[in-house]
Amino acid sequence: MERLLEEAAREFPGWAFERHRSGWTAAHGDLRLTRPSLAALRALLRVHREARRA
């Protein structure tokens, strides 16, 4: 799990990742996104990143 968390931090610099009972949360400033798994959270962040580029 630690390796996956390190990969997420490298892929999304500036985001803080936290695991809790209901899943995972990524925070960047005032924006907080939560999903049940780290994989789902990373997928959402990829969509979010692409939407910001467009």
Task: Note the main attributes of this structure.
3 strands; alpha+beta; 48% helix; Transcriptional regulator; globular; 3-stranded antiparallel beta sheet; single chain; 54 residues
Order of helices and strands: HEEEH
The level of helicity is: 40-55%
**How many strands appear in the DSSP assignment?**
3
Mean pLDDT: 94
Described by the principal axes of the CA atoms, the overall outline is globular
Helical run tally: 2
Radius of gyration: 11 Å
Class by alpha and beta content: alpha+beta
Unreliable residue stretches: none
End-to-end gap: 32 Å
Largest sheet: 3 strands, antiparallel
Please report which band the strand proportion falls in: under 5%, 5-15%, 15-25%, 25-35%, 35-45% or over 45%.
25-35%
Strand arrangement in the largest pleated sheet: 1-2-3
Organism: Nonomuraea coxensis DSM 45129
Protein name: Transcriptional regulator
Describe this structure in words.
It is built from 2 helices and 3 strands. The protein is α+β, with helices and mostly antiparallel strands and 54 residues long. It has helices at residues 2-11, 38-53, and strands at residues 16-20, 23-28, 31-35. The chain has a 3-stranded antiparallel sheet with strand order 1-2-3, with helices on one face. A hairpin with a 2-residue loop joins β2 and β3 (31-35). It is globular, with a radius of gyration of 11 Å.
Task: Produce a short descriptive summary.
The chain has 54 residues and is of the alpha+beta class. Helices cover 48% and strands 30% of the residues.
